[in-house]
Amino acid sequence: MTTAITVTAADEQQLLGRIRTDLYIDGQWRAASSGRTFTVTDPSTGETLAEVADASPEDGQAALDAAHRAQRGWAKTPPRVRAEILRRAFDLVTARADEFALTMTLEMGKPLAESRGEVAYGAEFLRWFSEEAPRISGRYSTAPDGANRLLVVKRPVGPCLFITPWNFPLAMATRKIAPAIAAGCTMVLKPAALTPLTALLLTQVFEEAGLPPGVLNLIPTTSAGKVTAPLIKDPRLRKLSFTGSTEVGRRLIADSAEQVLRVSMELGGNAPFIVFEDADIPAAVAGGILAKMRNGGEACVAANRFLVHESVAEEFTTAFVERMAGFSAARGTEPQSTVGPLVDEATREKVSSLVAGAIEDGAHVALGGSSIPGPGYFYQPTVLTGVPAGARILDEEIFGPVAPITTFRTEAEAITLANDTPFGLVCFAFTADLNRALRLAEELDTGMLGINAGVVSNPAAPFGGVKQSGLGREGGFEGIDEYLETRYVGIADPFVSTSDTEDD
Ligand code: NAP
């Protein structure tokens, strides 16, 4: 494919014809043991894109068998070899950026320009962790009393299970796969049933990049619970990394307790977007549009509540509504598309019900407020003002192009409102006051904070939340630690015979 803006139906068919749709277990592409497949559809049209092998619990077991068999050998692979496989995968994804972008646009709905942004972001995890693989290190030191030597080494955790969501089909997979490969772990990946094609294409890339059989096993399925629950209870599995809703994550943590499994959880958010009275308003509007409309609002870090100082509320809202009104809702392959459909009817219904509830509670519709009729699950970019405290839309993840705006009077009130949620993923704040920014960095209960920035995600930074937004971090120097165990080796003083030493 070229980088041409216009994508034809023939381009789509050619691409879909190149994506393998079987399970990938132990380096082999194979049909599901049940012979069953499931349909992947285009959320812009409701039309079928592909039929994908539907893994059964037996296939899940086969995938874990393969990951377990490959683990010992893979852990011994020189870090440089693991790094070079990741680097080749980075080069291949980058070279095939248009194919990955179109695949995501087709199965998830976002405009092609956004999909291209995700390709760059998702690929960068491969490059970042290719650079981290050779830097895994430990330490050797003398015990304080001088008697023993302390050797601390890092070891791969072992076989991992990855469960990923549909909203960033590439990046949510590479954010887990790349550090696991770098650390020397093998893995089973279960992508979201709505968007398995990107994961299938990525697996083809890893095969081409020379990843040995059994290191990455891919099991798309429509029976997420039935297929993954036995793996979580299997003592050969050593780590679960999940990105998705808090509700499912909570259940998986409980299931993981049986094996005392190491878990990483990237869960839901309820990001406040705070505009202080001293903010650069045009910059806050631009940041707010990014924070709200990136991925059509279907992002865990999407601005979910706009808290605007009452003295600048009118100026901010007028300019923000104007920008929101400029979005063009269309199939992501159309050149004019700047916002795609929601991923399915259930997601659209949830957005509609949150908006209807807010209106009942007294909110004013400044823009939009309805579904867009016709094929696909489109929803109008929407701005609600005067949203009263207690409205469900301020407490729940909207996951759509809807911005509820409320006002505040003091910094203390803004911080209290921002923290008044069981979630703690990210907060965005716009202010010209450096001391205030530093106070926010200390007072806000979130894993991440954007100051005068509407996007904070970066492969070189530790992404993750506190409270019910999750456990662990992905990306940055911290990301690889999720896949490493610390092993301590106590060594008797090499200058005296062992019979002279005392052991505590
Ligand atoms: P979801 O319903 O929790 O699904 C996420 C994944 O879990 C999918 O692969 C799903 O499979 C699987 N799953 C569902 N039930 C399961 C079960 N009982 N056992 C094992 N796996 C199960 O979430 P989603 O709607 O796809 O994604 C949206 C959520 O993800 C939002 O809450 C968003 O905030 C969160 N998210 C968080 C981050 C972060 O980094 N914090 C990033 C992106 C998204 P199926 O596809 O078959 O249902």
Short description:
The chain is of the alpha/beta class and 504 residues long. The chain has helices at residues 9-18, 57-76, 79-95, 97-108, 112-132, 171-183, 196-208, 224-232, 246-256, 281-293, 313-325, 345-360, 392-395, 411-419, 434-443, and strands spanning 23-25, 28-30, 37-41, 48-53, 139-142, 148-156, 160-163, 187-190, 216-218, 239-243, 262-266, 271-275, 303-309, 364-367, 382-385, 402-408, 423-424, 426-430, 448-451, 466-467, 470-471, 484-492.
Tell me the Rg in angstroms: 24 Å
* Fourth-level CATH superfamily of the largest domain: Aldehyde Dehydrogenase, Chain A, domain 1
Number of strands: 22
Helix content class: 25-40%
> Average pLDDT value?
96
Structural class, from helix and strand content?
alpha/beta
Task: Name the beta content range.
Answer: 15-25%
Separation, N- and C-terminal Cα atoms: 66 Å
**CATH 2nd-level architecture of the largest domain:** 3-Layer(aba) Sandwich
Tell me, what's the shape? globular
Unreliable residue runs: none
Number of domains: 2
Oligomer: single chain
Describe the biggest sheet? 7 strands, mixed
CATH hierarchy class name of the largest domain: Alpha Beta
Number of helices: 15
Would you kindly provide a written description of the structure presented here, covering whatever features stand out?
This protein has 504 residues and is of the alpha/beta class. It folds into 2 domains: 279 residues, 3-Layer(aba) Sandwich (Aldehyde Dehydrogenase, Chain A, domain 1); 181 residues, 3-Layer(aba) Sandwich (Aldehyde Dehydrogenase, Chain A, domain 2). Helix content is 38%, strand content 20%. The chain is built from 15 helices and 22 strands. The strands form 6 sheets. It has a 7-stranded mixed beta sheet, with helices on both faces. Strands 9-8-7-10-11-21 form a 6-stranded mixed beta sheet, sandwiched between helices. It has a 3-stranded antiparallel beta sheet with strand order 5-6-22, with no helix packed on it. Helix 4 runs antiparallel to helix 7 and helix 5 packs parallel to helix 6. The mean pLDDT is 96. Bound molecules: NADP nicotinamide-adenine-dinucleotide phosphate. The site of NADP nicotinamide-adenine-dinucleotide phosphate (NAP) has 27 residues, from helix 8 and helix 9.
